Amino acid sequence: MAKEKSSDTLKIDPETAPEAPAAAPAAAAQQTLTVDDAHSAASYANFCRVSSTPEELILDLGLNPNPFAQGSVTIHVGQRIIMNHFTAKRLLQALAVTLQRHEQAFGTLETDVMRRLRSAT
Fold first, then answer.
1. Within the chain, where are the H helices?
2. 18 with 2: CB under 8 angstroms?
3. Is 121's pLDDT higher than 80?
4. Which one, of 100, 91, 84, lies nearest residue 52 by Cα?
5. What share of the chain is helix, strand, coil (3-state, %, to 5)?
6. Which residues contact 77 (CB under 8 A, 6 or more apart)?
7. The pTM is what?
8. For residues 19 and 90, is the Cβ–Cβ distance under 8 A?
9. What tens digit of pLDDT does each residue of 73-106 get?
10. Helix (H) or strand (E) holding 49
11. Residue 45 half-sphere exposure, CB side, CA atoms within 13 Å?
């Protein structure tokens, strides 16, 4: 399967950006970011473990091939994302907005598996 090259350009106004300093220099009115994901690898995760140190937040993502298995299950972590708490907070806000839009368009996402099963029958 061929991978398509994709890139996005974002223009950020430092006056309205959440991480903007209190007094932004007039010369730096706008920052342009180009996101190049041509060499990124996509993976699927249905398991996430979050841990933290005073300096960093750590997300371990993996695949649980049988989430309803009984007994001991080993989940292999496929991705570990380490970020500072400021970036984690911006990620939290971005995910909240994205999920809110999804639920407005498609309905509430029920995270309790048993409730989902009961409502499907």
1. 85-106, 113-120
2. no
3. no
4. 84
5. 25, 30, 45
6. 49, 60, 61, 62
7. 0.67
8. yes
9. 999 999 999 999 999 999 999 999 999 999 999 9
10. strand 47-52
11. 16
